[in-house]
Design goal:
11 strands; 4 helices; homodimer
Chain lengths: 178, 178
């Protein structure tokens, strides 16, 4: 039951800027709309888990809904989702381990973990198995940090690195447990 | 008069752990003592600038002094350096711009900027020209952060990326001014 992260970050580890905007992800000219492996990755997972902040940030960006798998939003305060997303998005609340168990029982075993809060919660419990980070060549100097404090060091195995659009460095890491 | 950064960091952007130790930099088996391009880089600069914290951290690691160029330690509190380093290390104090001017006048034009505090001060003034980061496949979850807050976004050009020892991702960035 592996849990995956697939995310873009600045060199200094921010995934949104000070105004909660994701514009920096678009700073690289991308005339052919290279998708950085996102659709292939999306095909490989069963569902997406994110927190309310991330959900609202993505809604704020507008445009097409780009998650082709069911999305579960962890929130104790959110009570409904926009009508057009009713078939795509479900709100869940509770302890992370219980949520994972519930999702696994429903047949969702490969989970895409998205957004800083949820990723950090999963890392604190050491239940992230694979991380794919695309580093955008920019220092934001403030905003939403991808990583937070951890109770212990976590070692990863370097799986592969590729440079995309001559600008983004995309690296895939696998958790290495001794 | 370019200013350079050459540094190792964890995936989550720490350059020393919570105990101010650099052990994580040695976590990758390196039987042939690959130097990650450090000596070539060192040959390319004229001197090193670091803060007191970094200087004392490096002294604390012990072993051979690995800077082959003059080192200038920026400190208002340090008054002397260990006898064995008297020929290698000089203490300086004052405003960064004045220090750079003084060093440039003395013939040091290619400066290697080392340590979190000094790197962050230089970045705040937007006077870092090139950054070479070697990312160690580990989350430290706490310690000394390489990057800090900035008054504005800074864009960089991706120059090259190589994977070293099948584990470290070393990327060279050049500051891109619009």
């Amino acid at each position: 039951m592996p849990n995956f992260v697939f995310i873009g970050a600045s060199i200094d580890g921010y995934i949104a800027d000070r105004n909660n905007k994701l514009d920096f992800l678009e700073c690289i000219p991308n005339p052919e709309n290279v998708d950085f492996g996102f659709q292939d990755f999306m095909q490989s997972v069963d569902c997406v888990i994110m927190g309310r902040n991330t959900f609202e940030t993505i809604l704020g960006v507008g445009g097409e809904w780009h998650y082709s798998k069911p999305v579960f939003v962890l929130s104790s305060s959110l009570t409904s989702v926009p009508d057009k997303l009713k078939d795509n998005v479900e709100i869940m609340q509770g302890e992370i381990n219980d949520i994972i168990t519930a999702l696994n029982k429903r047949g969702f075993s490969r989970l895409y973990i998205d957004g800083a809060n949820v990723i950090q919660s999963f890392l604190k419990k050491d239940i992230i198995d694979e991380v794919i980070i695309s580093t955008v060549p920019m220092l934001l100097g403030g905003g939403t940090k991808l990583f937070g404090m951890l109770p212990a060091h976590l070692s990863f195995e370097h799986m592969e690195t590729q440079v995309l659009l001559n600008a983004l460095v995309q690296t895939r890491y696998k958790r290495k447990k001794e």
